[in-house]
Design a protein that fits this description.
binds arginine, alpha/beta, Gyrase A, domain 2, four-stranded parallel sheet, globular
Length: 589
């Protein structure tokens, strides 16, 4: 379906052509003087020079062509030659009806099937999730949903950090604590126990302990490196222990992500592509791309047009060990072979942007990926405390994800209990969790990803202003009006949209009509914040309309049905949008 500005411009273009001018002049834009008109066209000004005519004359002639227009209810040519436009209520209503009847509210689908892989979440096994991983999960989930809505085949991959030194550290600490376990006896040939020799709570405590020890004790670190080496070289007991660690850790992650309404299609990780490394490295050497530099194996990735220094991409360290970039390169290769993607999108902290620049260039240069595949890195900013400084816990650590979520949920519960004395605590708690998730996600997604933002529990949980709870409150308000209408015998299936009868109603309809324009931009720019900005404007337009309009009390049944139909559409669009942001609305709050 055409975007609203395209549809309107088409009418204007016909008018220019009809008056004997070139069509292209008929481009319509939103008015920058909303007090005077809704839309405007400056084509007559642009055409004046070419046609050696006063712009006002051209404008008058074009306006004349539009006298009978069904698209505009008013076309005014004003000095020195602007066309001020007002949309016809019938046309706007028709546009919304088409949106409502079509799939995806009129968003244009791609002509051919295309596949996108979104690499997000990226937690590290056995290390506690921190706020950075929250951003990656929240933004990535939304980018994934938006792309899926836009008609693409989308695969979300968590890309676990499951292969580095941290695994060796955990194994070392387990060995210290439970040396009697069969895993460390390399002469052992029997089966290993089915059950993991630790709980998730233990595991979470083991990593920080081991990491602390390795910083103080060089021999401990030495052992950890040796254990990492053994694991990476397939020593049986180490592999078996690693399997346990992954299983316990992944089960716990799944629970956490489920609470966040985040879902991955692939649970691959750095370990998944280890089998590809030797072959890939060999090919890079053979192809003449990789060469030795200070003992390490590197690929040059700088280009003549670079304005800053781009260091070579390191493939193997001097001790022969693979790096973060090596696994990322192999992962690209694996994805190309298995899924033949058209686009790969990575969502990480923006401090990793050099890493991805190097990896992307190296992947292209070494032909792991074709020129036609788009590689995109979305780097996000830092989450700061309320004071605008990087977030720290009281003891100076990085705040744990669970803590942030529980802080929000608690405050949400307090606010709900405060305004709803009648609500049983259990229900209030359930609702607080739903609204709390919206508070966190909206608080994050409403900022452009690359920007830093402040995690502000008070602001995020407020029912007023540009917040998740405000959006949900608006949806709940609509739901309750619709429920009342049904209680009084009305049927939502029978109502039909009708032309606006008040300026506030029209303003609401005009907001709704921007949906596919906004969605296209949100998709092509990987920009969930555009969805947030849209629903905030939409919720504001709805609330203004709601305060000025009798709906349930409207006596004229036909009028009332038209209003109810508009409420249904507003609710459907809002609910679709929040689903794209990765949260949902309760039935009451
Ligand atoms: N595990 C990494 C981290 O915690 C993020 C992984 C991002 N994805 C990737 N393909 N490199 O920083």
């Amino acid at each position: 379906m055409k975007k609203i500005l395209e549809a309107i411009s088409e009418e204007m273009k016909k008018a220019f052509a009809g008056a004997g001018y070139e069509e292209e002049l008929g481009k319509v834009t939103l008015s920058n003087r909303p007090d005077l008109c809704e839309y405007q066209c400056n084509g007559a000004m642009a055409g004046a020079k070419k046609y050696h005519k006063a712009p006002i004359m051209i404008a008058n002639e074009v306006a004349e062509q539009l006298k009978e227009s069904k698209v505009f209810s008013r076309v005014e040519a004003v000095a020195p030659g602007f066309l001020n436009l007002k949309l016809s209520d019938d046309f706007l209503c028709g546009y919304l009806k088409e949106m409502e009847a079509g799939e995806k509210f009129g968003m244009e689908m791609p002509a051919e099937e295309k596949t996108i892989i979104v690499d997000y979440g990226g937690p590290n096994v056995a290390k506690p999730l921190h706020v950075g991983h929250l951003r990656s999960a929240v933004i990535g989930e939304s980018v994934k949903r938006i792309a899926r809505f836009a008609g693409y085949k989308v695969i979300g991959d968590i890309h676990l950090g499951d292969w580095g030194l941290q695994m060796g550290l955990i194994i070392t600490e387990l060995q210290e604590r439970k040396p009697e376990l069969p895993y460390f006896d390399e002469s052992y040939t029997g089966d290993y126990p089915q059950e993991a020799p630790f709980t998730i709570a233990e595991l979470e405590e083991i990593y920080p302990t081991a990491s602390g020890k390795s910083k103080e004790d060089p021999s401990y670190k030495e052992k950890a490196m040796e254990n990492t080496f053994k694991l990476q070289n397939g020593v049986r007991g180490h592999r078996a222990l690693w399997d346990h660690i992954i299983r316990v850790s992944v089960a716990d992650m799944k629970k956490n992500y489920e609470k966040l309404n985040v879902e991955f299609d692939l649970w691959n990780g750095e370990s998944t592509v280890q089998y590809l490394l030797p072959e890939m490295v060999e090919a890079m050497k053979k192809g003449g791309y990789a060469y030795e530099s200070d003992g390490a194996l590197v690929v040059d990735v700088k280009e003549e047009t670079d304005s800053k220094e781009i260091p070579p991409c390191i493939i193997l360290k001097s001790d022969g060990a693979a790096l973060y970039s090596t696994t990322d390169l192999a992962t690209i290769s694996e994805r190309v072979t298995k899924y033949d993607p058209d686009i790969m999108i990575y969502i990480t902290d923006k401090r990793q942007s050099m890493h991805f620049e190097q990896v992307f260039r190296c992947a292209r240069k070494t032909k792991l990926v074709g020129e036609d595949v788009k590689l995109i890195h979305i780097g996000f900013g830092t989450v700061n405390g309320k004071d605008g400084k990087p977030f720290k816990t009281r003891d100076g650590g990085v705040p744990r994800l669970e803590k942030l979520i529980s802080d929000i949920d608690e405050e949400m519960l307090r606010k709900i209990m405060e305004s709803r004395h009648d609500m049983p605590e259990e229900e209030a708690k359930e609702i607080a969790d739903i609204v709390g998730l919206a508070a966190i996600k909206y608080g994050d997604l409403s900022n452009q990803a690359a920007k830093d933002y402040s995690f502000d529990v008070d602001r995020f949980t407020s029912f007023e202003g540009d917040t998740g709870p405000y959006i949900l409150y608006t949806i709940v308000r609509i739901k309750s009006i619709l429920a009342k209408y049904q209680e009084q015998g009305g049927s939502l299936d029978k109502v039909q949209l009708a032309p606006a009868i008040s300026p506030d109603e029209k303003a609401l309809m005009m907001e709704i009509a921007k949906f596919n324009t906004m969605m296209e931009a949100a998709f092509t720019e990987c920009a969930p914040h555009k969805v947030c900005a849209y629903i905030y404007d939409l919720a504001n337009a709805f609330n203004r309309f709601y305060h000025e309009t009798r709906i349930i009390a409207e006596e004229d049944e036909t009028k009332k049905a038209g209003l109810i139909a508009l409420l249904v559409l507003t609710k459907d669009v809002l609910e679709t949008c929040i689903d794209l942001l990765g949260f949902s609305a309760p039935d009451r709050m």
